[in-house]
Structures are given as structure tokens and as C-alpha cells.
Amino acid sequence: MFDVNWLLSATAQSTAAIVAILGGFIATRLMTDSSKRKEIEAHIKDIDDEITFKKARATKLYGELLEDLAVDFIHDHAKQICRIYVNKETTTLETILDDERSDFVLSEIQPYWDETFSLLELIFSKVLDKKLECRENDVATILKKEITSFQYCICNDLFDNIMEVFEEQNKIEVKQQEGNYLSEFANLSTFELPKMSYYPYNTSTVDYHNRDEEHQKLLYELDLLALQKKNLSYRQTSLEKPNDVFIGLIVLTFFAVIGILIPLHLMPVNTAEIITPEIIWIANLDIMLFAIGLGLVIGYFVWFFMYKK
Fold it and tell me: Which of the pair, 188 or 100, is modelled with greater confidence?
């Protein structure tokens, strides 16, 4: 006598065991992914902290390098700037940069240009108030408490050049007015003008090149950190939506339905001494469903390990 209930019970138990194995595998996978996500989040936080630190250092270095470049730019154009100020010319910074085809960004150099003219205003007022003598050789030290670090670097050079421009202006006015009323620059001719000094380029110093190298290195490292963060973020996103786990849950659910629920539903079968077509149909269906489910599980494991590779 053939007992189909025994077959249904056996396939249901076998399916339950396989489903338990698959469920444990998926649970392990989820716990592993959760642990990896936490590691990645910690790593991303460390990278963000490092990026913040290096970006602040790079910004500080860039400001220092830009100030050195601006100092050299002012030294190169000190006489021209003083003439613009004294003669109230309309020449702008943009015009100078365009004429020279300079690599300077106007918005970056403009603040230093404005500081230069503020310094000229201060120097001019001090000279008129006789708080500065035309023969002064270290005006920067005298005005140190009233000027910025950038203005301190260009102060003496500007003072020397503006005194020369004042002298030039005074001689022109003397010739034009032939002894009539002279401008406020006229009395400067009675002073001995300071001897022009040589100002070395800040951008030619070893310190400048060392800072420039450090800045370039920081930019390179920031690019690498940004790339690392991008790759980690991509991995984090893939772990948050694990396609393999989702497919595994579908296989598990489907196998549990066709391998456990359906056999249990069909199990109360009256076993007769003669095998009826109904019993044969139920037995064949049960074996077919179990085979389908087992094939899906095996296919899932094969796909999973190929997918991970």
C-alpha cells in the first residue's frame, strides 16, 4: 500500500530544513552587511574629518600664497599704482590684468588692490599732517599698529614710490604754474627723498616654494580622499539595498509555500489499498513542486557566489 501522506510529510520536512538553512544564510548575510555598513560609516566619518582638516590647511596656505603673489604684484606695479593715486587716473586693476594677460583672478586680487589704495590714503594723510618725514626709511615699522600684514610688506616700497611721484608731480606743477600757487605736494621738494630700496620677490623664497609644494600635495590628497569617500558611499548604498538578499527572500518564501504549505494542505488524503489517479496526481505534484523549489534554491546559491565574485 502506498501512503501519499508519508510522501507529503517527508517533502514538507525536507523543505523546512532547506528553508531553515537558506534563512540562516540570509540572516548571516544581513548581519554581515549591517557590520560592514557600520565600518563604512565610521570610515567615511574619519575621511570627512581628515578632509575638513586638510581643506582648512589648504585654504590657509592658499591665502598665504595668494598674499605673497599680491605683494610681488604690487611691488612690480608700485610706481604705476602711485601715479594712479596721485594723478587720479581711471586705470583699473582689471585693465592692468588684461594688458598683461595675467593669470590672477580679479576677485581674488581685488581686496589687496583696495588695501593698497587704503594704505596710500594713510601715508598721504600722515605726510600732510607731518607725522611722516619724506626721508623716512622704515615707514612700515612706524605704521605697524595701523596696517595689516599685507600692507606692512608693501608699505616701504609704496612710500618710496609715492615720494618719487610727488616729486615728479611737483616739478610738473612748478613748470606749469611758474611760481603761482602750487599744490599740496609742492613743499615736498624741500626734503631729501629716501633712497629707493630693493625688495626681493616673496615668490622666489624657499619658504614660498615649500608652502606651494605642501599646498599642491594637500590638493592631491584631498582629491584622493574625495575619491575614497565616493567609492565608500557607493558601497554603502549597495549594502543598504542588497539585491541578493531580496532575491533570497523571494526564493525562500516561494519554496516555503510550494514545499510546505501546499503539501500540508494536501496531506489529509485517505489512503486506499488501490492507488487511485488522484493519489498519483497528488504525489507527482508534490515531487514536482519540491524539485522546482530545490532547483530555485540551488540556482540562487550558484548565482549568489557568482554575483559576489
Answer: 100
Q: Are 14 and 109 found together in one domain?
A: no
The total domain count for the chain is 2
Q: Are residues 200 and 102 in the same domain?
A: yes
Cα–chain-centroid distance for residue 302?
41
171 and 107 in one domain?
Answer: yes
- Same domain for 18 and 94, yes or no, is no
Q: How confident is the model at residue 273 (pLDDT cuts 50, 70, 90)?
A: low
- Say yes or no: 189 and 130 in one domain: yes
